[in-house]
Write the structure tokens for this entry.
Amino acid sequence: MIKSAFNFLTQSSFKNLLATTYALGILLLIVIATIITSNLSTRTVEESLRNTGIQLVESFASRSRLALLYQSEDEAQIVITSILSFPDVKAAGIYNEKMQPIYLSNNELGEISQSTSEKPSVLDYENNLEWVYSSAVFSTTDAEISPFSDAQFEPQLLGYVRLSVSKSALTQLKTDFFKYNLIVIGALASLLLWALLTVTGRVTKPISTLAKNMHKAAIGGTKIRTYIGGTQDIIDMELAFNNLMEILEKREAELLTTRDLALEAAKVKGEFAANVSHELRTPLNGISGMLELLSEMSLTVQQKDYLEVASSSADSLLELIDDVLDFSVYDQKDITLNKKSFNLSETLEDFIVLLSPQAQRKNLSIAYFIDDDVPKQLIADNVRLQQILHNLLGNSLKFTRHGSVSVSVTKQKNDDGDDNNKLSLLFEVTDTGIGIPPEAQEKVFQAFAQADSSTTREYGGTGLGLAICRQLVTLFGGEIGLHSNTNKGSTFWFTIKAEADDASNATLSAIELTVPLKNKILYVGDNPLCRRFIDQRLTALSYSADFVNNGTAALHMMRQQAKEGTPYEVVLIDELNSGIRQSALSKFINDDKELHTSRVILTINRHISEVEISQAQLDAEYLTKPVRQADLAYLLNTDIDTGGTKTALALELEQTKSAPASFEDKHILIVEDNRANQLVAKAMLERLKCKVTIASNGKEAVEIASRHTFDLIFMDCQMPEMD
């Protein structure tokens, strides 16, 4: 009730509020005025009727003297019959001096109260229906002594009379008074209400008209003016509104002009950035290519140092150009996503492998994790997702001195109702780096911003990577943020909207990738991140494994299984930081008569060269870290007794490894107008023993291609004559 009243007060128009207030006030006025006037009128009439009753009982007492003097019932009956003829007299009675009735019209009168004794006419009592009067009757001089007597007269009590008078007339008068007062006051109040509503309408109509015009202006209407007239205050409001509309329309026109200029400037800026970045990339690519070619020549140590500095500077400049171009492109806000089906696990695996040399040079562990409920095949823009991951993982590796870097993917609650294909995925990139102070966390996603100036000097960078990530995440319909503690590491997270490729996922689920081993695999490693990563890879291949964190525990587990007649078929040994080292443990297992039946597979850093591996004289098979799932599946399905058969995946991988790629005598056409890039491309391809032909523009390339057959054509995008 209260809420409804509040809504009415806050949502009704000014006119309705005034009308409601007036109506309630007039109604209250009618009720109060009617009650007051009716009560005053009734009180006056009631007092008059009460006095009339006193007079009537006095007259009754005077007429009753003769009947009381002779104690005559007949005379009393005659007196009572005459008094009952008066209006509203209900009953009457005559009593002797002992208060015994001589004659009563009916038995409703009851007994006379002792307080009536020897008192003149009084109102004995009353209720809602009647008044009851009593009076003592005394003798008079005419009745007692002769007029010639000198004796002093003393009145004698003859008896009593009692009279009951009905209040029906008073009740009727009360009703009539209330009805007539209500009619008269209601009519007058209605006239007053009509007058008030008329005045209210004239006052509020201009305000209502002005409010409607303001609403039209608020929803985007133009050229709106109001001419409503009224009082001086209303006219002032009208003039103020019209002036305001003129000012707003003028400013809107200025804003539209400014917006058009800004859009045009942004377009020019994007085109300028694209053209400039291309022109900058062209000579820089030539510089980088030449530096790479020089690095393979015989150089002194000092020359190699100079060459390394030059290469690093060129790479930094290329990265800067890429960031500026990407930021300029994504700032246009007219970019659309190119959604295609891709395998999420393969995408993350490629990224981890790509960044692993950088991580391993700093002795960092790097891995990725995908929850089981995340679909394997997704439909989204894989290229832009990779760019987000590249920026976040690159930052984590840059600002982490020791520890680990990892990326995990989890499925969030679906907000798209019953559409099970729609997904919201949460990506978290976690590191154990230097962290970000709380006061700097709000600005790291701004363009050209880093945690502080010292970070910029020590680690370099433009501060555009996270700003680009925020732009890309917005394109995906997601959010981006971070959790960080200084000197304890950071977790950058972002969400994207994607779809599950149900057809591809159903096909993947139906393919049996491996033939599981009969016995468990033993994994030896003291790095928790690597252990968790290998566990997920083995689970995906339907293998089960036991895990120990040092060589001593591994030997104990292997001997125990051997005694039970179920030796481990494969022992995966990671690099160990304490106790028995990796190579020593491998040699010990191979030399032990009880344990040598188990295959030993080592996991080594990917950036180690083949020469270093041969020099280490590893007496076991090995996998490079981070371990690719396909490589792991290949080794586990090779030379193992699986009923004389190998899986299709193992056969395919074996054929691939046995047939290394060869580009000898391949005929390649290079279409490039820049002399430096021509030389770089030609030199690199000739290192692969390819035959190279060069064209300086598109027109020349068409002519050459029409005369010769080429295995591959490399073509620049922007060239003279024909691009």
